[in-house]
Design goal:
The complex is a heterodimer of chains A (286) and B (321). With 286 residues, chain A is α/β, with parallel strands linked by helices. Chain A is built from ten helices and 13 strands. Chain A folds into two domains: 201 residues, P-loop containing nucleotide triphosphate hydrolases (Rossmann fold); 67 residues. Chain A is globular, with a radius of gyration of 21 Å. Chain B is mainly α. Helix content of chain B is 74%, strand content 4%. In chain B, the strands form two sheets. Chain B has a two-stranded antiparallel ribbon. In chain B, a hairpin with a 4-residue loop joins strand 1 and strand 2. The chains are: A alpha/beta (286), B mainly alpha (321). The interface between A and B is medium-sized, with 36 and 30 residues.
Chain lengths: 286, 321
């Protein structure tokens, strides 16, 4: 099976700062990959390189094409929502549908109309007359009506209220995603996408610091709630991170045998957010 | 092939949607104002100034009837000159407005969508940047003048209808007095050719604006103007000459339509012939051919091609963040 995205040694610098510092990627079809990192870690630059929106050094192939030279061709099979509310404000919703219909060989207008009919968005409204949430719904309706192999989402729900955010990912999963398709998504609200991801990548300082499937995560990482009396014993096992919650100590371990946990306390798979914090602290000088 | 044509159509239509206010509403407003003021003027003559007498050395004037009679009394040549002169006069407003709104259209064409980030939406569609830039050139150089041209044709018909009504109400023969000497088709044809030739003449000017628009991160207007002024002054300072400014003035103010700046006697670029028999202007196709094959025109296209290629390159490779 050929990779949807294959990258080796992606580099890009803005002056002294390395936005991308040797990024490797191998994303297979049918995955939902979360690219997670702090602000300025290189998430957006990475996505822009994949979409042919920025220059970079290194090897990169997206759907077998070179995004630098074949961007227009690539866009037949790649969709993206970069940032919230990028739809042109002067356009009517119906004009957007007409335009995309005319330039995009894989767009299905009737599908978009069906998606839109479930929202309050009216076709004769101009984008500037819609609320931010409605603009995102419009954009998503268009994107979900395109038969694309790869969908890239860069903070697609930033600043939206919770109802829209929930719907956004719900619609994406139920009406769009299938094993033929691949979704690459970045967001600050990790908790919201945690349950839909199949893979997760952490990026920090332009480097990929973690690249794992969700099953991997479940077997590699464990979080244990320890009563204070047993904290010293837990520390001896070499946790990645320790924090206190309501008087109990929470330890996060990587590659710990389950036998060693016996008697320490309840354990479970850590949330991506907790793992992320631990990973970032691990990387940062204390 | 077919999909390419389809995409160009869609792109040109998109520009029209976005710039409907400039491309469509402006000509409509101009024609409404011209026709409106003409009608208001006549009402003023009929009702308010009905009893007023305007007396000059040559004629006595007491109302619109006198105007008609005056027209009847003049020789056919002068009559044709008066009517067609008035029709041509009405095109001037369109020409000047067009220059301005096309200027600002180009200035924003590759800049506004980067400013409001909608470029990220446009770039998510399988349309090449070459097509995008060329469709914008086409919209400013062809769509806008063609719609202005339609405005001109409608205005002329409106004015002729008004004149006809006046002739009737004054008991004169409209077909003799107005429709005989008037040359609306001739004028429409002349303006059509003139607008096309003008856009070709202005190609480097338009392309420069596209380039500035693609280049600017902010203040596109300054990027479009300041470098030219600097080059002009640099030449003046280093070489004590004004050739660059002269070149600009001839390019923008020259051509067939606009201000007819004829700074240099050698570069004469008119395509109109004055027909002394019928006292009308007509397109001199020989002059059109001469102009289209002139060195100045061809150089203009070379420069335009360079600027447009640079604009496409910037549109393609400039980082959007």
């Amino acid at each position: 099976m050929s990779a949807i995205i294959y990258a080796k040694g992606l580099r890009k610098s803005f002056g002294d700062t390395h936005a991308l510092d040797g990024v490797d990627m191998d994303i297979q079809p049918g995955r939902i990959v979360g690219l997670i990192g702090p602000n300025g870690a290189g998430k957006t630059t990475c996505l822009q390189a994949i979409l042919g929106l920025t220059s970079f050094e290194g090897e990169l192939s997206v759907l077998g094409l070179d995004p630098r030279r074949q961007r227009a061709e690539l866009m037949k099979n790649v969709c993206f929502i970069a940032d919230v509310a990028t739809l042109p404000r002067w356009a009517k919703v119906s004009q957007l549908l007409d335009f995309v219909d005319q330039v995009h060989p894989n767009f299905h207008r009737d599908k978009a109309l069906e998606f839109l009919s479930k929202t309050k968005v009216r076709l004769d409204k101009k984008v500037r007359e819609l609320s931010k949430g409605m603009i995102v719904q419009t954009h998503l309706s268009i994107v979900m009506s395109i038969d694309a192999k790869l969908l890239v989402l860069d903070e697609p729900t930033l600043g939206l209220d919770i109802l829209y955010r929930k719907d956004f990912y719900h619609n994406l999963l139920t009406d769009y995603f299938d094993e033929e398709r691949t979704i690459l998504v970045t967001t600050h609200q990790v908790e919201e996408i945690e349950k839909i991801l199949t893979d997760v990548m952490f990026i920090d300082d332009g480097k990929i610091v973690l690249d794992a499937t969700m099953e991997d995560l479940a077997s590699r990482y464990v979080e244990v709630l320890v009563v204070p009396e047993k904290a010293d014993a837990a520390r001896k096992l070499g946790p990645m991170n320790e924090r206190e919650v309501f008087g109990r100590h929470v330890f996060l371990y990587e590659n710990l045998r389950r036998e060693d946990l016996n008697g320490l306390g309840e354990y479970h798979v850590p949330s991506i957010a907790d793992l992320f914090v631990a990973k970032m602290r691990e990387g940062a000088p204390a | 092939m077919n999909t390419h044509v389809h995409q160009y159509q869609a792109l040109v239509r998109r520009e029209f949607w976005e710039h409907r206010g400039a491309f469509f509403t402006t000509p409509v407003v101009i024609l409404t104002v011209i026709i409106g003021f003409t009608i208001l003027g006549l009402i003023w003559f009929y009702y308010i100034a009905g009893g007023t007498r305007i007396v000059t050395d040559e004629f006595t004037f007491t109302g619109v009837g006198d105007l008609v009679r005056m027209l009847e009394d003049t020789n056919p040549q002068d009559r044709a000159m008066a009517i067609n002169g008035m029709l041509y006069g009405s095109t001037v407003v369109f020409n000047i407005a067009l220059l301005f709104y096309v200027f600002f259209y180009f200035l924003g064409s590759l800049y506004d969508d980067r400013k409001d980030k909608s470029v990220l939406f446009w770039k998510s569609l399988p349309v090449s940047d070459t097509k995008t830039v060329l469709s914008k050139w086409f919209s400013g150089a062809v769509t806008a003048p063609m719609l202005a041209w339609v405005g001109i044709v409608v205005t002329q018909l409106g004015l002729l209808v008004i004149m006809t009504v006046i002739a009737w109400t004054s008991g004169a023969s409209a077909s003799n007095l107005i429709w005989g000497p008037a040359e609306p088709l001739q004028i429409a044809w002349t303006m059509l050719v003139a607008y096309i030739v003008q856009s070709l003449w202005w190609a480097p000017f338009h392309a420069w604006l596209l380039l500035a628009s693609a280049f600017a991160r902010r203040a596109a207007f300054l990027w479009a103007t300041v470098p030219l002024v600097l080059v002009g002054f640099a030449e003046a300072y280093l070489n004590y000459s004004w050739n660059f400014f002269r070149l600009l003035a001839e390019r923008i103010g020259g051509g067939v339509i606009p201000l007819q700046l004829d700074l240099d006697e050698d570069v004469h670029i008119g395509i109109m012939n004055l027909d002394p028999e019928r006292a009308t202007l007509s397109v001199d196709m020989g002059a059109v051919t001469d102009l289209l094959t002139s060195v100045e025109m061809l150089w203009g296209w070379v420069v335009a091609a360079v600027f447009i290629s640079a604009a496409i390159w910037l549109r393609r490779y400039r980082d959007e963040t």
